[in-house]
Amino acid sequence: MTTEHHTRVELKARGNAHFSQEEYGQAIACYTQALVGDDEGGAPDKAKWNAAILSNRAFARLKVGTAEAFALAEADCSVVLETEPRNIKALYRRALARSALGHHSAAKLDLEAIIAFEPSNPQANEALDKLRVQVAARTHHGTFNAAFQQQLLDGKVAPLLTPSTDVDGPMRLKSPRQHKSAHSPRHHDRHHHDRAFAEALRQCSLVAHHEAQAHAARDQAVAKAAWDDLQELEKSVTKSTQVRSAQVKRHGQKKNKGQKASSPSAMTRPASSSIKSQTDALWAELLEDEAKTRSVVQTKQKKTHP
């Protein structure tokens, strides 16, 4: 083991010690010094070593809890995943960083990738469930409901960082017996967290129910007002139609009375019919006389020119 590598091992150990004492700033500094630089390309297992250190530094930055620290943690994990795309810790910690930054879709992809590699991973499944609750709690304006947002800020719904004394250790799956152990402090914490999570869901449901009732009441009032306006309009149109019909009827009656009293055509209609009959009879007689005259002329012509 070279002197440089021995020094990096010591820096990593010091970083882990600072992390366990919740001295995250000093832990980050130690991890940064423990990284193998680009000018040390000949260092053995450089990529693997740096991946472990970057993952630890990302975890410490998550613990700092500022927006800048979350962004740096996401960047550290992304560097790890460039060379180790199946690194579960890097995927999980990047998902936490992205979720904290509000990048829920990207965080969801990381968690789904973990579950694709390890379907029974409890941390990833739990974080994915909570992330779905966060997304469901968002309003159409892109913000969280105020009442539910407070639950998120209190840590009752947001994905939790689970500190470990073995910072660089693998994410181990817990057996059902470990989960069910009534004497385990972790079981007690988990039970407390589950109750808090259930209460947050209940509060979210109540808020959504009250908002739905408010919307329904407002919509019902608007619908009733519109119906009343429609009824008034219908009455107005009906009344106007009745008045117009009465006016038309009176006008028709006046017109009929005027025609009976003063129309000359009504008085002379029989006379006009009689004149027409006489004219037709006279015209028939003229046609008959013409036919007789034509017959006499034709007879005389035959006698003169046998």
From TrEMBL:
<protein>
    <submittedName>
        <fullName>Aste57867_14441 protein</fullName>
    </submittedName>
</protein>
<dbReference type="GO" id="GO:0101031">
    <property type="term" value="C:protein folding chaperone complex"/>
</dbReference>
<dbReference type="InterPro" id="IPR011990">
    <property type="entry name" value="TPR-like_helical_dom_sf"/>
</dbReference>
<feature type="compositionally biased region" description="Basic residues">
    <location>
        <begin position="247"/>
        <end position="258"/>
    </location>
</feature>
<dbReference type="InterPro" id="IPR051966">
    <property type="entry name" value="RPAP3"/>
</dbReference>
<feature type="region of interest" description="Disordered">
    <location>
        <begin position="236"/>
        <end position="278"/>
    </location>
</feature>
<feature type="region of interest" description="Disordered">
    <location>
        <begin position="161"/>
        <end position="194"/>
    </location>
</feature>
<feature type="compositionally biased region" description="Polar residues">
    <location>
        <begin position="259"/>
        <end position="278"/>
    </location>
</feature>
<keyword id="KW-0802">TPR repeat</keyword>
<dbReference type="InterPro" id="IPR019734">
    <property type="entry name" value="TPR_rpt"/>
</dbReference>
<feature type="compositionally biased region" description="Basic residues">
    <location>
        <begin position="174"/>
        <end position="194"/>
    </location>
</feature>
